[in-house]
Structure formats: C-alpha cells, structure tokens
Amino acid sequence: MDLTHMDLNETPATPVFCTIVPPHILSNLAESHEQARRTLEHDDTHRGRRRDIVARGLTPGEPGAAADKPKRTIYDARHHETVPGTKVHAESDGPSKDVSVNRAHAALGATFELYLKVYGRKSIDGAGLPLDATVHYGRKYDNAFWDGERMVFGDGDNDLFLDFTIPVDVIGHELTHGVTQYSANLDYQGQSGALNESVSDVFGSLIKQYALGQSADEADWLIGAGLLGPNVTGKALRSMKAPGTAYDDDVLGKDPQPAKMKDYVETTDDNGGVHLNSGIPNHAFYLCATALGGNAWERAGQVWYDVLTGGELAKDAKFTDFAGLTVAAARARFGAGDEQEAVIKAWTQVGITTP
C-alpha cells in the first residue's frame, strides 16, 4: 500500500539537506583547499533554507492527465548563489548549447522514466511533480543537492571535482531524497538517516543501470563515477560493491565507509554518520541484486521500492527494521523462493539478522 497521499497531509516531512559530496570529505579538504572550505560553510548555512521549505509541509497533489510525462525546467544561476535563477530550458525545447543544461535535462528524464516505467510512480511525489533544476550554481561550487523543491548543481572546481551534472546517478540519488520525502519520510539521523542515504544510492545506481541497459553483473556499482578531478586518486564518491574502496587520495583522504555491521561508525558528526554507515545497507543491496542476477531494478529494486513506499517503514527505522521489511516484501511480492532467500542471505552477510 502506498501512503503517499495520506500520511504527509498530517505530518510535515522531516528536514533533510543532503549534498552528494558528504561533509566528511569536505572537512578533510577544508584546511588545504579554500574552495572546499567555502563549500562546507555554504552547505552548513543552507540547511536552514531546507528546513524552511519542509516546514511548509509540502505534500503531493493528485495525479493529473499529463502526470505520466515529465515536465522539466532548467534554470541558470549564472554563478550566483540564488535559486532558481534564469529560466533557460523548458520541456519542449531542443538541445541547448550548454552541455550542463542538456545533461541535467537528460538525467531528470532518466530518473522520471525509471520510477514511472518500472514502479508506476508518476514523478517523485507520485503525482506528476514538475522537475526543476538549477545549473552553474555559485563559483566553483563543489557540490549538488536537492533542496526540497529542485535540483541544484555546482560546476566543481575542475581540480578536486568536475561538473556535478556529469554522473546521472548523482542526480538520481538527490531526486530520490524527494521520493523518500514524499513516502517513508525517514528521519535524517543515525540508522534511519543512513537508510535515507542508502535508499538514494540504491535508486541512483538503478537509474544509471536502467539508462545504460546494464545487468547487475555489468554495473560498476559506483556512486559519482566521473566526478572526481583528474589529479584525485579514486574512482567515485562511494562503492556499493566494496564500501571503503572508492578513493584513497593524499588530499581527499581514504574512503571511510564500512561494509559490515561490526564496523559501524559511532559518531556525532554528519547526523550520526549517515553518509558513512549507509555503506552497510548499500552493500546488502548489492549482494542481493548480484545474487539474483539479471536487471537489479526488477527484483531487488522492486523489494526495496515496496518497503520505501509501503507505509510500514517507521520514520526512525533501524537497519534490522528495514531488513525485516525487505524479507516480508520479497515474500509478498515473489513468494517464498529465490528472492526471499537472497534478501535474507544479503543482510546476514553484512552482519544483520532479519527478524
């Protein structure tokens, strides 16, 4: 059962301000890189605006006749830190001369397409919400984020990070925070916050796989591949296949994500380590999807989507809660067979016993 149109009319969504480059990376860079310090300071202050947006209690509307088609609008901030900026591209427009505009338009479409064609969801709110994005935000801004109303992309500094419209999974990740905002509304703290982050990584990766027509075995399972600058030693921001191995760089530091529960990070930073500990449920999904084989969005992705939108996932859910619901969802959707066994085994391999 999808409670999208019920619960959020009663309870405003929990404040979430997620940037694709997590605070622990920017903190490592802040002392030696001025741009990273400015980005970190910007993100800290911008969380206030995100809270204001959510405090309005934004709720989905009713699907309209055209809700099965995307309505994308791209704006250009022209290197200012104001949104939305100047409108430069509408849904019906042809390709732009600006590659950032074209990439943003395409990735918004890829996200819309996966949710609609695979899961029958009409945009991120389930009711055909228009998808807006702002490109060229700030000067050499080293991040991208969903602010509760739109996607916002920095150009990167071309040293540590490149243009943030490059990886389609980055856009899919951030827009999925919108899906969570309109469905399970997971608290952005501790294990529920790590689940919030993990769900965005899961569907960000599935959006990329779907757009490229990749099977689970063909996928790279990286988040943000192609985003790191030419002098950075690393492949991406995160690896679902092998958390803790995405980068190991003299400046960026070493990827600190754990892959198993025994290595869970207890910290007060980053809302209780939401970007760190998301590696554990990320790896569980990878193990489940690759064990089942084929297209990851068809079975493993369906189970995760059923849990996210099913109405039984508590806002403050722990890893064990989520794991138990995935086992139940696998059985409800596919019966007591390979899917349920793969889900149970995946969680067990990362050190989580399902109820």
What does this structure look like?
The protein is an alpha+beta fold and 355 residues long. The protein has 10 helices and 10 strands. It has helices spanning 23-30, 34-55, 99-119, 168-181, 190-212, 270-277, 279-292, 300-309, 319-334, 338-349, and strands at residues 18-19, 72-76, 86-89, 131-135, 144-146, 151-153, 222-223, 238-239, 248-249, 253-254. A 6-stranded mixed sheet has the order 1-5-6-4-2-3, covered by helices on one side. It has a two-stranded antiparallel ribbon with strand order 7-8. Helix 5 (190-212) packs parallel to helix 7 (279-292). The longest helix has 23 residues, at 190-212. The chain is globular. Residues 1-15 and 47-57 have low confidence and may be disordered.
Topology (SSEs and partners):
Blueprint: E1 18-19, H1 23-30, H2 34-55, E2 72-76, E3 86-89, H3 99-119, E4 131-135, E5 144-146, E6 151-153, H4 168-181, H5 190-212, E7 222-223, E8 238-239, E9 248-249, E10 253-254, H6 270-277, H7 279-292, H8 300-309, H9 319-334, H10 338-349
Parallel strand pairs: 2-4, 4-6
Antiparallel strand pairs: 1-5, 2-3, 5-6, 7-8, 9-10
Helix pairs in contact: 1-2, 3-4, 4-5, 5-6, 5-7, 7-10, 8-9, 9-10
